[in-house]
Amino acid sequence: MRHIELNNEITQMADGFYQLEKDQEALQEFLKEARENTLPFSNVRERIAYMMEQDYYYNVLQEYSLEEIEEVYATTYEENFQFQSYMAVSKFYKDYALKTNDGKQYLESYEERIAIVSLYLGRGNAEKAKKYAQQMIKQNYQPATPTFLNAGRSRRGEMVSCFLLEMDDSLNSIGFNINTAMQLSKIGGGVNQ
C-alpha cells in the first residue's frame, strides 16, 4: 500500500525539512485505491435500490420520493468536496464509509454518507435534509461520531455515545448495571454512573 509508505515519508528529513508534501501524495494514492475498491453505481436510483435490497440502508423511500432523494445527493455532489489530508481520507474510509458484508468493497463516498445521514435526520422533510447536507458538506456542521456512523443504516448501533445509569446499593441493581454497561459498551456506548 503505497499511501502508507508515502505517509511515513512525511517525517523523514530532506534538505533539513520534513517532507510535508508527501501528505498530499499519500492522500491522492489513498483516493485512487478507494475508488478502485468502491462498488460502482450508475445513478442514485440504482444506489438506493441496491442499498435497500441488500439491507444496508433503512427504507428511505417510505419518507421521501426518489426525486427528493436525488436532490439531497445532488446537494452533496455539487460542492466538489476534497479531503485536505491523508489522515482525514483514511479515517473516513476505514471507520465511517459503509462496506460490503465481506469488508472488501466500499459502498459510499463522503458525499454519499452525508446524503444518507441528512435524509435520516430530516425525517421525511426534504428541505431540512438538504439543509443538513449543505451544512455537513461545507463542514459547518458535523453530527456526533455515532450519529454520522449509524444514521441511515438498517443494521446499526446507537446514535448516541454516552449513557447515564443510576444504581442503588443492592446486589440486583449492581448486577443489572454491570450487565447494562457491558451491553452498551458492546454497541459503542460510553457509560457514566
UniProtKB/TrEMBL annotation:
Alphabetic keyword roster: Allosteric enzyme, ATP-binding, Deoxyribonucleotide synthesis, Disulfide bond, Nucleotide-binding, Oxidoreductase
Catalyzed reactions per annotation: a 2'-deoxyribonucleoside 5'-diphosphate + [thioredoxin]-disulfide + H2O = a ribonucleoside 5'-diphosphate + [thioredoxin]-dithiol
Ribonucleotide reductase large subunit N-terminal domain span: 83-156
InterPro entries in the record: RNR_lg_C, RNR_lsu_N, RNR_N, RNR_R1-su_N, Rrm1
Limits of the Ribonucleotide reductase N-terminal domain: 3-81
Ribonucleotide reductase large subunit C-terminal domain: residues covered: 160-191
SUPFAM superfamilies: PFL-like glycyl radical enzymes, R1 subunit of ribonucleotide reductase, N-terminal domain
EC number: 1.17.4.1
Signal peptide limits: none
Highest taxon of the lineage: Bacteria
Entry similarity comment: Belongs to the ribonucleoside diphosphate reductase large chain family.
PANTHER family reported in the protein's UniProt record: RIBONUCLEOSIDE-DIPHOSPHATE REDUCTASE 2 SUBUNIT ALPHA (PTHR11573:SF30), RIBONUCLEOSIDE-DIPHOSPHATE REDUCTASE LARGE CHAIN (PTHR11573)
Function: Provides the precursors necessary for DNA synthesis. Catalyzes the biosynthesis of deoxyribonucleotides from the corresponding ribonucleotides.
The name this protein goes by in its record: Ribonucleoside-diphosphate reductase
The species this protein was found in: Ectobacillus funiculus
